[in-house]
């Protein structure tokens, strides 16, 4: 197409590549018309033109001139005024608009149709050609795209960087808070926060069903709810106590079965049975398995809505109330509620705690059940002595608990039992569960367990974690648990016992109310195993049954103890104590900087003694190991031989004195021997010098005395100081004065 502005030919039909002029439809129409005219004016090539060419060739050979065809000069296209064209187009559009307006007015069009016609004219502006010409131009136009250079600026780069930073921040916050949000959502949408389970009616008569229907430890209540419930419980308890003091009736002490209907305070208006939320009809207390206490409560109402968080339970003895937070199990059987727990006053020394009461409280309801527990047969003097040993050795190194129980004695000694991280002592409970499955023929010791990456303890570098083995026997996993405290091996054994949840159910069923697994075991720091909680009382109960072969059965208990003989020796064990004959123990690594535990059965010549020592908040692990060793050794001396702290201190003083005397005697003897040796050496040297002197007629003057002895104050018959050779032997000489007055010796 030829540009009407600069006259140059270009390939584009939309814009001139030289001057930038944009072609409009009139330009295109004009170019199209010129093209048609040129095509009509061109003469087609005919065969007769060949004759003319031959004629021109013959003329050129003859030397005649050949006329050249006339050339048509290029006529420049006059430049049109764009303003003029725009003005004409606008004028034409105005005329069209007026025509349409008059036509619509004459025809009486309504407002909508008139608006559409005006819009069509406006959209057609500034060109007045018909639609067919536009379509033809559009079909003939070639698409022409002018490339654009991508613009870059500092602002766009900065915006991109800010977007990336914002994305990273959102991802970080998602990883940080997602677990908490998921946990809250699970708690919110969960039907119950407790694991209270309804016992089927066909199994309600089974006394040992508590395990299979036990309650998994529920999630703890929020602090605000706890504070509110505690205030309500205190008010209800105070009201209930005042009412009971006024309406107290005589009841036989020591009864295990009692009926305790709820009593209302005299100061409050009486309420009908329908208005009361709960009412206890009767109660029964069982202490046959003391220190485990079992309380059965029969209610008048249905307990379908009761769960782990409905009631608050407290144990009261004398003027002390102890709240049972999570250290109990709850079982629901129809209208009966059964709660089992370990006596929280077990570690109290020097106070009679035989008379106790269980307080049951909730909003708008409170009741209590009185009961008696067996009196402790632990000698008070013995308890004070063991407490003194624990304080002197353990409390200086960290926060510690102590459990000591001599076989055949009714009550153990418990010092400050509390829930702490179990570390590898959770292995006691895992191994008991596995041996129970073996006794039930559900598991065999030679069964193989395939290695599972999901059960690998995080941070573990033990045998299971680093070995290339793909499977282990059950016995191999037991040995790794005892000998190495292998966390991954224990995870595989827990999975063999149907997983963490079922294992926690079994713990409640077995009466281990404090022990639980919060998650699969993991290893942190210096051989520190996290993920489980327990206390000295739970482990002590297990060891008591194992020592008496009452844990599972005699055969499995002996197998258990035989495997425990392979446990490694530790700095915490008093190996030098001659009273120890054999030991069955599990204990933490000596290098553990978080906790230091010892637990085991120590057999002496008289009877086995159970020890459980648990400590955390350590200042120095090495010092705590020494403190545990001294605690075990000193308590053994006291229990077996009756050696008290005073006796031990006196014996140590005497021992130190004897050692000092022996050391002094040894030092004096060494000094005497040193002096004698020095004198002998001096005499030998003198005799050696004397042997070199030649005696003439056995007479020697004092002036030439080879020994250089002082010859003053001599007298006849005085012995010489040194020994001299007299031809046959070494001996002292005898001084005499000759006729000339000279001193000599012979």
Tags for this model:
18% strand; 17 helices; 5-stranded antiparallel sheet; alpha+beta; single chain
Write the layout of secondary structure elements.
Blueprint: H1 25-41, H2 49-62, H3 82-107, H4 111-124, H5 131-140, H6 154-189, H7 223-246, E1 257-258, E2 280-286, E3 292-299, E4 312-317, E5 320-323, E6 328-333, E7 336-342, E8 355-362, E9 365-372, H8 380-393, E10 399-406, E11 413-415, E12 420-421, H9 427-439, E13 448-450, H10 463-466, E14 471-473, H11 474-484, H12 487-496, H13 499-509, E15 516-524, E16 528-534, H14 536-547, H15 554-564, E17 582-587, E18 595-603, E19 608-616, H16 621-641, H17 645-690, E20 719-725, E21 730-737, E22 743-745
Antiparallel strand pairs: 1-2, 2-3, 3-7, 4-5, 4-8, 6-7, 8-9, 10-11, 10-19, 12-16, 13-14, 15-16, 17-18, 18-19, 20-21, 21-22
Helix pairs in contact: 3-4, 8-16, 9-12, 11-12
Walkthrough of the structure:
- With 746 residues, this protein is an alpha+beta fold.
- It has 17 helices and 22 strands.
- The protein has helices spanning 25-41, 49-62, 82-107, 111-124, 131-140, 154-189, 223-246, 380-393, 427-439, 463-466, 474-484, 487-496, 499-509, 536-547, 554-564, 621-641, 645-690; strands spanning 257-258, 280-286, 292-299, 312-317, 320-323, 328-333, 336-342, 355-362, 365-372, 399-406, 413-415, 420-421, 448-450, 471-473, 516-524, 528-534, 582-587, 595-603, 608-616, 719-725, 730-737, 743-745.
- The strands form six sheets. A five-stranded antiparallel β-sheet has the order 1-2-3-7-6, with no helix packed on it. Strands 11-10-19-18-17 form a five-stranded antiparallel β-sheet, with helices on both faces. Strands 5-4-8-9 form a four-stranded antiparallel β-sheet, with helices on one face.
- The protein is flat and about 185 Å long.
């Amino acid at each position: 197409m030829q540009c009407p502005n600069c006259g140059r030919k270009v390939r584009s039909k939309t814009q001139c590549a030289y001057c930038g002029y944009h072609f409009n439809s009139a330009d295109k129409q004009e170019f199209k018309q010129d093209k048609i005219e040129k095509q009509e004016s061109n003469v087609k090539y005919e065969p007769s033109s060949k004759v003319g060419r031959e004629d021109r060739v013959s003329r050129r050979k003859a030397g005649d001139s050949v006329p050249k065809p006339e050339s048509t000069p290029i006529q420049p296209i006059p430049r049109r005024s764009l303003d003029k064209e725009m003005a004409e187009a606008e004028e034409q559009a105005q005329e069209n608009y007026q025509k349409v307006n008059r036509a619509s007015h004459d025809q009486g069009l309504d407002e909508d149709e008139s608006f559409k016609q005006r819009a069509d004219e406006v959209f057609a502006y500034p060109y007045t050609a018909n639609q067919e010409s536009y379509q033809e131009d559009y079909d003939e136009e070639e698409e022409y795209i002018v490339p654009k250079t991508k613009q870059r600026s500092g602002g766009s780069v900065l915006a991109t960087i800010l977007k990336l930073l914002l994305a990273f921040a959102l991802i970080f916050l998602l990883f940080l808070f997602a677990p908490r949000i998921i946990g809250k959502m699970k708690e919110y949408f969960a039907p119950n926060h407790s694991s209270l389970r309804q016992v089927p009616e066909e199994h309600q008569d089974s006394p040992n069903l508590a395990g299979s229907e036990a309650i998994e430890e529920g999630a703890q209540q929020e602090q605000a709810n706890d504070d509110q419930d505690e205030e309500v419980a205190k008010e209800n308890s105070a009201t209930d106590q005042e009412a009971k003091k006024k309406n107290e009736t005589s009841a036989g002490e020591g009864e295990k079965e009692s009926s305790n209907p709820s009593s209302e305070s005299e100061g409050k208006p009486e309420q009908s049975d329908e208005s009361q939320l709960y009412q206890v009809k009767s109660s029964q207390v069982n202490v046959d398995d003391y220190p485990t206490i079992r309380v059965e409560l029969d209610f008048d109402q249905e307990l379908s809505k009761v769960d782990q968080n409905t009631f608050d339970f407290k144990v009261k003895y004398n003027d002390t109330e102890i709240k049972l937070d999570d250290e109990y199990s709850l079982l629901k059987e129809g209208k009966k509620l059964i709660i089992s727990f370990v006596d929280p006053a077990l570690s109290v020394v020097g106070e009679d705690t035989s008379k106790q009461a269980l307080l049951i409280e909730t909003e708008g309801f409170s009741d209590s059940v009185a009961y008696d527990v067996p009196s402790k047969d632990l000698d008070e003097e013995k308890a004070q002595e063991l407490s003194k040993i624990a304080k002197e050795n353990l409390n200086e190194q960290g926060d510690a608990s102590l459990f000591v129980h001599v076989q055949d004695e009714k009550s153990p000694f418990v010092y400050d039992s509390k829930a702490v991280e179990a570390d590898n002592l959770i292995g006691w409970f895992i191994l008991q569960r596995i041996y129970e499955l073996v006794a039930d023929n559900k598991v065999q010791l030679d069964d193989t367990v395939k290695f599972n990456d999901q059960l690998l303890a995080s941070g573990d570098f033990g045998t299971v974690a680093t070995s290339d083995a793909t499977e282990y026997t059950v016995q191999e996993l037991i040995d790794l648990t005892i000998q190495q405290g292998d966390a991954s091996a224990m995870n595989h054994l827990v999975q063999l016992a149907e997983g963490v949840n079922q294992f926690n159910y079994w713990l409640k069923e077995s009466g281990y109310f404090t022990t639980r697994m919060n998650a699969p075991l993991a290893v942190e720091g210096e051989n520190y195993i996290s993920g489980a909680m327990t206390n000295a009382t739970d482990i002590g109960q297990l060891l008591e049954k194992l020592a008496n072969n009452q844990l599972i059965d005699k055969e499995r208990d002996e197998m258990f103890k035989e495997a425990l003989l392979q446990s490694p020796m530790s700095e915490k064990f008093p190996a030098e104590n001659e009273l120890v004959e054999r030991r069955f123990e599990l204990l933490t690594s000596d290098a553990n900087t978080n906790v230091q535990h010892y637990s085991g059965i120590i057999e002496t010549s008289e009877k086995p003694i159970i020890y459980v020592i648990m400590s955390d908040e350590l200042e120095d692990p090495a010092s705590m190991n020494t403190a545990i060793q001294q605690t075990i050794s000193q308590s053994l001396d006291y229990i077996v031989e009756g050696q008290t702290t005073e006796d031990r201190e006196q014996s140590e003083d005497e021992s130190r004195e004897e050692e000092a005397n022996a050391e002094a005697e040894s030092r004096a003897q060494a000094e005497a021997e040193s002096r004698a040796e020095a004198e002998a050496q001096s005499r030998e040297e003198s005799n050696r010098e004397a042997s070199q002197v030649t005696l003439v007629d056995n007479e020697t003057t004092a002036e030439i005395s080879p020994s250089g002895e002082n010859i003053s104050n001599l007298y006849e018959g005085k012995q010489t100081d040194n020994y001299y050779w007299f031809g046959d032997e070494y001996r002292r000489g005898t001084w005499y004065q000759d006729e000339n007055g000279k001193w000599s010796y012979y």
